[in-house]
Specification:
This protein is α+β, with helices and mostly antiparallel strands. 38% of the residues lie in helices and 28% in strands. The protein is built from 3 helices and 7 strands; from the N terminus they run βββββααββα. The strands form 2 sheets. It has a 4-stranded antiparallel sheet with strand order 1-2-3-4, with helices on one face. It has a 3-stranded antiparallel sheet with strand order 5-6-7, covered by helices on one side. Helix 1 runs antiparallel to helix 2. The radius of gyration is 20 Å and the shape is elongated. The two termini are 20 Å apart.
Amino acid sequence: MSDESETVYDGVLRRGGRITVTRDRLLVDRPDGESVAVPLSGVVDVTLQDIDWFLVVMSLGLVGFGLASVGRNLLFAVLFVVAGIGSTALTYRKRGALRVSVSGQTRPLRLFPADPQACYDALATVLDAE
């Protein structure tokens, strides 16, 4: 292997698949068989999105409001509790999102590595070296 294609980070995505960071590109093999290769020279920005605590608190507030409303209207109370639990689950599922903005692309590449901090650190290190 040449020095340019040296693997800096090799990991798995939370929902299956692999992510590999080399000195010159980012490789993503998704579980559906789709592969994406992004040259690091085209990467504009990389951000790591932690869990959105505001949404977690709001979602749990819906659950609390639903539980407090059980005596008034059972149907609406159940709807609030279900909506709050669903919103909490979706918010938790989106934690640790790695967003890679690529020049020429309108939407950033959104990935969910199993170890988001290590993947982000590897990408930041390679991008800072350029």
